[in-house]
């Protein structure tokens, strides 16, 4: 017995297209209205760059430790791994043993990398 897949018609995508058009329209409308109605006072003080109310002093190209960037990359990496684990956790019962073993392999690779990071002292 052969089952046929569901056929999607272009009209099925109409609500998504309407929502997308409404979102884009709102963004454009908000940008135009704020540009037209907002104050336009320019001065030398307002046009100077500043960060959190502190005047900029020195060169912006000061060296920054690579550990800062490494920590940020590791955070993003582990964050993405959690994203891969969420659908698996939601469908855990449906996958059974066939879904459990590959996830244990995946977690083993993740933990191996994590223990390597701890051994190297990257997170200190």
TrEMBL record:
GO annotations of cellular component type: NADH dehydrogenase complex; plasma membrane
Organism superkingdom: Bacteria
Protein name as it appears in the record: NADH-quinone oxidoreductase subunit A
Subunit structure: NDH-1 is composed of 14 different subunits. Subunits NuoA, H, J, K, L, M, N constitute the membrane sector of the complex.
Keyword Transport: yes
Chief site of localization: membrane
Any Pfam family the entry gives: Oxidored_q4
PANTHER family per record: NADH-QUINONE OXIDOREDUCTASE SUBUNIT A, NADH-UBIQUINONE OXIDOREDUCTASE CHAIN 3
Membrane topology summary: Multi-pass membrane protein
Gene3D superfamilies for this protein: NADH:ubiquinone/plastoquinone oxidoreductase, chain 3
Localization terms from the record: Cell membrane; Membrane
Family according to the record: Belongs to the complex I subunit 3 family.
Matching InterPro entries: NAD(P)H_OxRDtase_bac/plastid, NADH_UbQ/plastoQ_OxRdtase_su3, NDAH_ubi_oxred_su3_sf
Cited function: NDH-1 shuttles electrons from NADH, via FMN and iron-sulfur (Fe-S) centers, to quinones in the respiratory chain. The immediate electron acceptor for the enzyme in this species is believed to be a menaquinone. Couples the redox reaction to proton translocation (for every two electrons transferred, four hydrogen ions are translocated across the cytoplasmic membrane), and thus conserves the redox energy in a proton gradient.
EC number, as in UniProt: 7.1.1.-
GO molecular function terms noted in the UniProt entry: NADH dehydrogenase (quinone) (non-electrogenic) activity; NADH dehydrogenase (ubiquinone) activity; quinone binding
């Amino acid at each position: 017995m052969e089952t046929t897949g569901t056929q999607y018609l272009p009209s099925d995508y109409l609500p998504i297209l309407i929502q997308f058009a409404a979102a884009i329209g709102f963004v454009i409308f908000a940008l135009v209205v704020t540009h037209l109605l907002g104050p336009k006072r320019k001065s030398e003080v307002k046009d100077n760059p500043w960060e959190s109310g502190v005047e900029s002093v020195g060169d912006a190209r000061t060296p920054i430790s690579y550990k800062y960037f490494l920590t940020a990359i590791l955070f993003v990496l582990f964050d993405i791994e959690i994203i891969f684990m969420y659908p698996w956790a939601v469908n855990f019962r449906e996958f059974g043993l066939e879904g459990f073993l590959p996830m244990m392999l995946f977690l083993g690779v993740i933990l191996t990398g994590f223990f390597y990071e701890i051994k190297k002292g990257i997170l200190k």
